[in-house]
Amino acid sequence: MQSSPGLLAILFNLVDTLIALVIVILIVYVVISWLYAFDIINRRNQFIYAIHEFCRRVTAPLLRPLQRLIPPIGGVDLSVLVLILLLQLSRQLLPWLHGVLTGTGPVL
Predict the structure, then answer these.
(1) What would the DSSP string read from start to end of 28-67?
(2) I need a labelling partner for 30 at 20 to 30 A (CA). Which of 1, 62, 81, 87 fits?
(3) Residues near 92 by Cβ (< 8 Å), separated by ≥ 6?
């Protein structure tokens, strides 16, 4: 993203950072779920449970609409992958949108 001064640039950087943070939380959620599924981590570990519960509460509102549309395939929930791809796409569109709003970039 361009480093132009101004409130709009700060806002776009903040949105980009928040989207990146949600992507990291999604990845942590999936990894812990896999570790639970394969019995690598004990479910009684309070620290890991707290992290998993936090990640679940943050990501559940984002995943629920996609889980209604995308059924699990072979027991694998693909809605997380779709959400990560959509979030990454939105991160890629942020510099373009910033350019359009500031008049410094191409419209198409």
Answers:
(1) HHHHHHHHHHTTSS-TT-HHHHHHHHHHHHHHHHHHHHHH
(2) 1
(3) none
Which of helix, strand or coil describes residue 76? strand
Q: Do the Cβ atoms of 59 and 26 come closer than 8 Å?
A: yes
pTM of the predicted model as reported, rounded to 2 decimal places: 0.88
Task: Give the residue carrying structure tokens 């999936």.
Answer: 30
Q: Any idea what the Cα angle at residue 75 is, between residues 73 and 77, rounded to 5°?
A: 70
C-alpha distance from residue 67 to each of 43, 64, 73 (Å): 24, 5, 11
